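Tutorial, part two.
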Amino acid sequence: MKVKKIHIAIATAILSLIVIAGCSRSIDYNDGEPVMFSELPKEVQDTLIWWGEHTIVSVGDTVVVELDDVVCFDSDYTFLRSTLGPWITSRGLRRNSDGKEWKFNGNLNVPTPIVTIGDTIYIPSGYNLVTCGGVNPDAVFYRQTLN
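Running the prediction step on this input gives:
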């Protein structure tokens, strides 16, 4: 009797994982249309330049002013991180207006900041494109539309 209950519990858990995996949306952050920094909307360029000029990381007095993981224009997204102990197991985005979530495929170290304008997202092609020294003028972002 105990063995039968265990089998039912395992089958239910597996079925639940299959349903959850089938309903998830994913983002391949290396996919999308490449867009140069200079081709981004002017308000996005100005914001990233401002953040680059005003980012402060001071170890001595623990003052930290850093760019958010998601910079939103005419949209409301939250950057998601799932962890298991000290390890990050997944990253994603949640559109707060309707609760839809997307998980990033592949490498969990998604470059940031991700810029969102409505349903369009711009993901940096690499790391450290926006630093405390400013913005790399040759920076490339990948444009994708979230449905």
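The helical segments are 2-23, 42-54. In part three we will examine how such features are distributed along the chain.
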